[in-house]
């Protein structure tokens, strides 16, 4: 079978314009950087096709001269390089999660797609398929948080591709596509927080629910006590709920210098999350929360070999926390014209918001401690903060310490 039906060469034989036996259109073919590259003009008139292919040839030469990407590389091949690059710099749990997501969800969808074909439509198609397959497998709608995690991974990867010259333009992957196209609505949980009065109310109700089981089911009492200490720990550490889920006793240093003031006791945490590894210095509440968890679990020393690798929070608190929020009527809060929903992520927001209002630390120090950036702090957290409501209360934050050890 003859590949070229008709052919003509230009630019010292570097460009061939030809026809295939299977098509009436004219094609262009070049060799550049040791690889063949071909394009269809989709034109039957030779002079029109020649002008189009010449323009394409000059564009490829311009890219080569200016060190722009000439050849497309498959998405999957580049993604494997991306994972390898991330792990060589920081072999964290978040990087391992990216690897897992790639093999579980990205690999099959993007297997034959080239990197410069990844535009908004392709990403949207991927998310639509992700939503459909999840519904088919589990019989329910995938959470916005899960899909948002996929989008953020793809966004980070596409940014890396642009920075390393694999794409000519930066693809801006936006979480707004979830609302505009996919239809998974934001419940308004982002960056909502508890006032001091609300936090006190939550702990008082939590302690009341624990005391209800003094003579009741011991497992229920254990779970409620566990949840109580989880709340205190999260509010006084500011870490993400996913980071808390992965926290082991080996990641914790309890600091007690023998000073009589409880507020001088605190913890140092080794955190591995979506922004990489960091050390977190907590407020005093974490110290007492962890001590209580050790007590109810029968742990004597956290550095024992049999204990060190155990998860600190080895159960899910979703149902218990939801019941507690409903009982205290703190599940939702009005902000402007919106009803915002609270969940475990609101404890991180509470830590950040209290730190901002108290004003004793520079914003950069707060941002570094919680593993976020100043733009995110300014854009998403500070907008919910009102000095009018919290300036006085925050000076009395230590008063809630009585609730910790009751």
Structure commentary:
With 406 residues, this protein is an alpha+beta fold. It folds into three domains: 4-65; 75-182; 196-403, Intergrase catalytic core (hpI Integrase, Chain A, Orthogonal Bundle), CATH 1.10.443. It has helices spanning 46-65, 75-89, 93-110, 120-138, 144-163, 177-182, 196-211, 218-237, 241-245, 284-297, 305-308, 318-327, 345-358, 363-370, 374-381, 387-394; strands at residues 4-10, 15-20, 26-32, 35-40, 252-255, 266-273, 276-281, 332-335, 338-341. The strands form three sheets. The protein has a four-stranded antiparallel sheet, with helices on one face. Strands 5-6-7 form a three-stranded antiparallel sheet. It starts with a strand and ends in a 12-residue tail after the last helix. The model has no long low-confidence stretch (mean pLDDT 83).
